């Protein structure tokens, strides 16, 4: 006997996207699920050519020219002042760079004995701005100065107290290179007594001097620097702005 109780609607059936079709009904009459997101194939694509490009700064290729630099270092150290003078005469705009052809003539004049391949590697490495010019200050400082703390030097063969915290070098500006090359002869002449003077000011034996004492010792040994030159040297040796300078790192730069 059929029941008079009405049958409750099934919520689950109401949530279905479609109901079963009656026999003979058309497929197109079935309700379809609404689209909740547009198809990926329907999205418009931005042409690659119209997309913004992020400028990538050019940097010189990483070439291992150390064997070449070691080969000519002794010759460079004997005649770097004359080489620098020749380069500066060619550098009319005073930008610290000259055409590679000009450096080729200078290298031949001072008998640097570079093969064609070696010359190509050197000029590629020191084409800092990728403009076909040879950055002669960077080249000379690499051959004359030793700005890497881990490099071998006379000071490393001496007992030197290590700093409690390693000090990372700061930027190497063109003014910095010029100043370091300018004072190199005087530093080489008196570095031993100068180091003793540095140590006499370093009462706590930390290997560090405050800026005033560091500057005073330089003056005592006639190491004359302009305020701008001294600023750039401090910028390199006191990157963290601690007002302290490692005098061993400073002297080590001139001793290879």
UniProtKB/TrEMBL annotation:
Protein name: EF-hand calcium-binding domain-containing protein 6
Cellular component terms per the entry's GO annotation: nucleoplasm
GO MF annotation list: calcium ion binding
Keyword Translocase: no
Gene: EFCAB6-2
Domain named EF-hand: residues: 194-224
Segments of skewed composition (Polar residues): 1-52
Renumbered residue ranges of the record's region Disordered: 1-54
Xref: Pfam families: EF-hand_7
Keyword entries, A-Z: Calcium, Metal-binding
Species for this entry: Alligator mississippiensis (American alligator)
Domain of life from the UniProt record: Eukaryota
CDD domains named in the record: EFh (cd00051)
């Amino acid at each position: 006997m059929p029941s008079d109780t009405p049958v409750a609607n099934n919520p689950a059936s109401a949530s279905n996207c479609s109901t079963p079709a009656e026999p003979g009904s058309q497929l197109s009459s079935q309700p379809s699920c609404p689209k909740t997101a547009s198809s990926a194939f329907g999205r418009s694509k931005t042409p690659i050519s119209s997309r913004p490009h992020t400028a990538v700064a050019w940097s010189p290729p990483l070439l291992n020219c150390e064997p070449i630099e070691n080969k000519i270092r002794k010759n460079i150290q004997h005649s770097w002042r004359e080489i620098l003078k020749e380069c500066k005469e060619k550098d009319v705009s005073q930008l610290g760079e000259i055409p590679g052809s000009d450096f080729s003539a200078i290298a031949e004049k001072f008998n640097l004995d570079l093969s064609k391949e070696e010359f190509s590697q050197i000029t590629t490495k020191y084409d800092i701005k990728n403009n076909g010019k040879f950055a002669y200050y960077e080249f000379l400082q690499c051959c004359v100065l030793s700005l890497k703390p881990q490099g071998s030097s006379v000071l490393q063969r001496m007992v030197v107290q290590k700093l409690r915290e390693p000090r990372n070098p700061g930027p190497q500006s063109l003014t910095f290179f010029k100043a370091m090359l300018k004072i190199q002869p005087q530093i080489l002449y008196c570095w031993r007594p100068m180091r003793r003077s540095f140590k006499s000011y370093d009462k706590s034996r930390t290997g560090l001097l405050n800026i005033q004492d560091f500057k005073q010792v330089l003056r005592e040994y006639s190491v004359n620097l302009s305020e701008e030159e001294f600023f750039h040297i401090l910028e390199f040796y006191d990157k963290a702005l601690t007002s302290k300078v490692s005098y061993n790192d400073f002297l080590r730069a001139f001793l290879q």
